[in-house]
Structures are given as structure tokens and as C-alpha cells.
Amino acid sequence: MSLTHESATGRVTGDRSTGLLDRANRVLSSRTAFVVVLVAFLLVGFLFAVTIHVPASAAPDERRHIGNIMLYAARPWNAGPFLQDVDASKLWLGEVTRFPAYLYYYLMSFPAKGTQALGLHLEQTVMVLRSIDVLAAGAGLYALRAMFRNAGVPTAIGLLATVVTASTGRYAWQAATISYDAPSMAAFFLFAAVAVKVARGGGLRTLAWLVVTAMLALMFKYSQAPLVLAGAFFAVLFRYRVDGFSWLRHPVRRAVSGFRERPWRSVVLVVIGGALLALVLERFGVNLLVYRALNPDCAEIHSRDACMNFGIFRRNYNAVRTHDLEVAAGTLEPFRPVSFLWMWITTYFRSLFFFWGPSLPWRPNTAVVLFGAVASVGAVAIAMTQMRRVLRNAAMWWLAAVPVAYTVAVLCFNAATAVNLRQDFAFSGRYLLPVLPMIAAVVLLGLASWIRRLHGRAATVAWVVVIVVGVVLFVFYNPISAFFPYANSAAWYSSWARDVLPQWLTGVRS
């Protein structure tokens, strides 16, 4: 499929494209176009890495992530990743001895030690670590390219979906702050690239890599478990619908044959898989056996008073007490499903493209938000009419099913929190970032399929409208346009940004 010709999942409808669209399709399908997108994203990411305040005022978790990295950086080079007997004064960092996502902190401690050896101060060290996260997010875009290619998504459509991801404000800003989100998403995109290959016809080796990449994604961020499980489930389900379980027959004989045919690749698979399996068993296995939870509650390991140093534990504890007191007093507000759903949709949309944190007021332009919302709803509505033409193979079904299942799971989780505590904890568009590329690809495929079935002037008008709307969205929704017009106080900017960037850009006097 191209932008103007036959879909890989549909039939030929004739060449109704202009020469300009044909040339645009060739350009978007080129490797050079992807390199340009990747380099542009990295440059923007590096800009924000040195621009955003240290720690990020609108992302209070960055302070905790920095603290965890520095905790590991203070240890000897050969100390290993496992912590024991951490002092209660350190629990503001969270429960660090059995926390599942420790691997990110441990790995990032090595460049932190390097910056300390060079004599860099904390702000400079943070900027270096942020830049590493930007590189991880760039690797995620490369993994997306592999995922779309493995799924059979046309190269031009895959590139446009990658552009949507790279130009989403939260993806860029999150990459430019210290957290395990950027590398964990890169690991998930790598997992997704393998999953669609399994769905389309991969063998036992591909299935083994699916398990390995799943373990990698979980070690970076354990809360991705529902997403990873959904991805693995649908990959195997859609493969089963085509081939049954015939592709799993004679596993031992085929594994031995695979070792003989590709010994070095097999060794790499076994070594990486074995190392990750050991880490998974040490952390998740022990946690489940001893504490019956992937991430044990802080109070299961330390005293409640000591755990009150941890902001998230203190928040949750106080929320439960407040809820119980309101129930006892009969003053608990009733749960309103319609109001909750509207708040959920609007909060997720705005915080995905125009993030504001709890510590800084930041409200995006209402007209810009409405334009983007209407355009998004319209695009999804049109794409829905084309799903029978788009969803013609297992990989395309995977790209559609996983985001739907995951989004419903996130909605249910937030609804449960609202019902049980009357709180809106973890209400943020960033939780939908991992499935945003798949949603974008399916919607773009639907739009392309719809336009190809129009004739004459109608097709021309449709192309013009889609292109103009896309350009306008990019102009107002790209990370730079969605940041600087709204971040107009010194609390948003690093000392470097306050000294170097012009006042007309930041609104801040140096």
C-alpha cells in the first residue's frame, strides 16, 4: 500500500493520485525520511533535556528517580544491583530493596558515576542522564519502524505514525526527563515488533524472542505487565486462528536444529534470555513467593511510620483514611459515572499533548484543544468505517486489539480508584503513550482507505483537507509549540535556559 495506490489489505481501486502525492509517497517511504524524523526528534529532545528545570517542576517524580540513581551511584562500581538494609531516611525514594524497576536506576548509575568523576555538578549530571533517556526514546522510534515493517504496514503510513508519536508533546518531554518510561517504552516497542511477527507467522525462535523482550520490558517497568500480557495473548491467539498449534510441534527437535543452523544467534538468545530470567525470578519470583505481590507494599517490609517518608505511600494511606472517615460520617460523595468518563477523556487528551503538573498552573489554549479533539474524533470516526478493509490479517488485528484492550484496562483501573477512594490518582495521558503509535497507524490506514474510494473532486478535496488539518495539528501540537507559549515562569526552566534562551521564547527575564 502507498498513500495513493493499493492497500496491502485491500484491492486496487485505480490510480487517482496526483504526481505530487506519488512523489510524497516515495519520499515518506525512503530511509532518509526516517533518519530526518529521528534526528529532528533527538535534537528537540536534547533541547528539552537542558531546558527543563532540574528537577522537572511539572513532573515531581523526577526528583525521586534522580535520588534512586544517586543512591546507586554512591556505591562502589562492583557493588551489584541489589540493595539490603536501606536506612529509613532513604524511604522518601520509595521502597528500594524489593522495587521491581530497579534495573533502570542501576544502569543509569554508571554514567552518573562518570559525570561525578569528571567533576560535573548535579544539574549537569541530570542533563547528561536526561540525554541518555532521549537516546532511549530515539531507539524506541527505531523499534517502532521495525514493528510497522513486521506488521506489513506501508512504509509511508508507518513513518507518519512515527511522526505522530515523536511530535506528541508528552513523548518528547518524558524522554527529556529522568524516568524509566523512555527505556521501558523502547523495550515494549521492541516486544511489539516481535509480537506482530509471531502473529504473522514467526516460528519457535521468534516466540523465544517474544518471551525475552517481554522480560526486558517488565524489568524496566513492571506496571507494563497488563500491556505485555495483552500483546502476548493476542499474538498467540491470532496465530492460533490461522495455524492452530501446528507451529509449536516438535519444539526440542526444532530447537536443536536451530542451534546447528544458527549457533551464534542461538547463543545470544540463550545468554540474554538466561540473564533476564535470573533477574525476573530474583525480583518477581521472590516478591510473589514472600509478599504475594509483584511490587510489595512498603509497610510489608518496613514500619508504617518509616514508610510515611515515601510520598506515594503517604498519599495512598491518607486517601484511604479520608475515604473511611467520610463513609463513617455519611459524607462520601456519590460516584457519577458520566462525569467521571468525561473527566477521564478530557484529562487524558489534554495531558497527552499539553501536560500540566500538580505544582504549576498550565492550561492550554481552548481553541487549540477543541480543534485537535474534533480532528481526532473525526479521523477515528472515518477510520472506523474502513475497519473491514484495514483489518485483513493477524498483524493488523494485533495493532487494533492491543490498544483497545489496554485502554479499557486503564479506564477500569482509574474507575476502580474513583469508586473505591474518590480519587483521580494516575490520571495522565502518558499511560496511553505505549499504544499511541498503533492507534495512529490504524487510523491513518483507515483514512487512506477511505480517500482511495473517493472519486474526482471529492478525492482531491479530501486529500487537501487531511493534509491541511495534519499540518495545522503539527504546528500547534508539536512539543515546542505546546511548551514555550504556556511555560512562562522561571519554575519551568533550568539555570542554563534562563541564562541562554531569549525572553521572547520563555517569557522569563534572565
Structure, described:
With 510 residues, this protein is an all-alpha fold. The protein has a domain of 113 residues. The protein is 68% helix and 0% strand. Helix 2 runs antiparallel to helix 5 and helix 17 crosses helix 20. The radius of gyration is 24 Å and the shape is globular. About 2% of the residues have low confidence.
Largest sheet: none
Report the structural category: mainly alpha
Q: What is the total tally of β strands?
A: 0
Total number of helical segments? 23
| Morphology call | globular
What is the gyration radius calculated from CA atoms?
24 Å
Terminal-residue CA separation: 52 Å
The oligomeric status of these chains comes to single chain
Mean pLDDT, all residues: 91
Helix content: 55-70%
Strand content: under 5%
> Secondary-structure element sequence?
HHHHHHHHHHHHHHHHHHHHHHH
Poorly predicted tracts of residues = 5-16
Task: Walk me through the topology.
Elements: H1 19-28, H2 31-51, H3 61-73, H4 102-117, H5 122-151, H6 155-166, H7 169-175, H8 181-200, H9 204-220, H10 225-243, H11 251-261, H12 263-291, H13 298-301, H14 304-307, H15 311-329, H16 337-353, H17 366-384, H18 387-390, H19 394-421, H20 436-452, H21 456-477, H22 495-500, H23 503-506
